[in-house]
Amino acid sequence: MLSTFLQPCLSELKQNDFGALTVLRGLMLQYQDPPKWKALMNLQHHNEERKVLPLWTQNEINVVEVIINIWKLGKYFTVEDCHTVKKP
Predict the structure, then answer these.
(1) Quick one: pLDDT at residue 45?
(2) End-to-end CA distance of the chain
(3) Which of 16, 33, 54, 82 would you call most buried, defined as having the most Cβ atoms within 10 angstroms of its Cβ?
(4) Contact of 13 with 71, CB cutoff 8 Å
């Protein structure tokens, strides 16, 4: 189960990881509450417009990198999902 893999992530949580933790809570809806996940994914995310903003790069470093690579949760979540959940 995914929660087994989250324990090491949370035990190594750093102060600047809280933005990623907030996004992770949204991403977890995919497994914990599929109807809410579907509703969240149906919201307009404006990812294409946001890709050209400096905020996109900051989110790549502070959120996506942490969730996908540092916490090694890439087999559960996509980069695109991370950006979609991390709305401004």
Answers:
(1) 87
(2) 30
(3) 82
(4) no
Asked if residue 62 lies in contact with residue 16, where contact means CB atoms within 8 angstroms, the answer is: yes
pLDDT of 32-67, one tens digit each?
999 999 999 998 889 999 999 999 999 999 999 999
Nearest alpha-carbon partner for 6 in 75, 83, 61: 75
Q: Which residues of 27-64 are buried (b: 16+ CB within 10 A; e: fewer)?
A: bbbbeeeeeebeebeeeebeeeebeeeeebeebeebbb
Structure-token pair, residue 29: 């809806």
Domain boundaries, the chain: 14-85
Per-residue model confidence (pLDDT) at position 64: 95
**Please, what sign has the CA dihedral across residues 4, 74, 42, 38?**
negative
